[in-house]
Amino acid sequence: MTRLSYQYVVIRCVPRVDREEFLNVGVVLYCQATDYLAVAWRVDRDRLSATFPALDMDAVCAALDFVEGVCVGDERGGEAASAPISQRFGFLKAPRSTVLQPGPVHGGVTTDPARQLEHLLEKLVG
Questions:
Q1: In 10 A of CB 37, how many CB atoms?
Q2: Which of 11, 14, 26, 124 would give a disulfide with 22, using CB separation of 3.0 to 4.6 Å?
Q3: Which residues contact 82 (CB under 8 A, 6 or more apart)?
Q4: CA-CA distances (angstroms) from residue 124 to 25, 60, 86?
Q5: Record's InterPro entries (predicted)?
Q6: What range defines the domain where residue 95 resides?
Q7: Model confidence over 5-37: pLDDT tens digits?
Q8: Backbone φ/ψ region at 2: left (φ over 0), alpha (ψ -120 to 50), beta
Q9: Structural domain tally of the chain?
Q10: Are 70 and 91 in contact (CB under 8 A)?
Q11: What is the pLDDT of residue 124?
């Protein structure tokens, strides 16, 4: 089995940037060797609303849908979706001051990027 290197970022929901409090809501995984770029996300509305009562859950889901559009390269991702895969990952991992923020870039090796993404979602998001 071929071991493939990959990079990933955890997508954090950060409603109040000034407080630096967040909950993990997704993972973006990029494997250059297979041109694989995907996001897996899960919004636990009860947990988020308990932690951030004023948070607009629909806006969070819409932002995550945008991330998914960038990954798959369709119209949901706007102009960023038309870039090559490596640039799309670069766009998604770039720091920003919005309600969704990427964490630091991490890496690893896997034989199956899609299965690794699901594993990371379970481990890091729940």
A1: 21
A2: 14
A3: 73
A4: 9, 18, 23
A5: DUF3037
A6: 4-124
A7: 999 999 999 998 888 889 999 999 999 999 999
A8: beta
A9: 1
A10: yes
A11: 98
Which residues does 88 contact at the CB level (< 8 Å), separation at least 6? 37, 70, 71, 73, 77, 80, 81
Tens-place pLDDT, residues 58-82: 999 999 999 999 999 999 999 999 9
| Inter-residue contact 26 to 66 (CB < 8 Å) | no
20: left (phi > 0), else alpha (psi -120 to 50), else beta? left
Which tokens is 34 given? 């297979």
User: How far separated are the first and last CA of the chain, in Å rounded?
Assistant: 28
Structure tokens at 64: 């995550």
- CA dist 94 and 16 (Å) reads 18
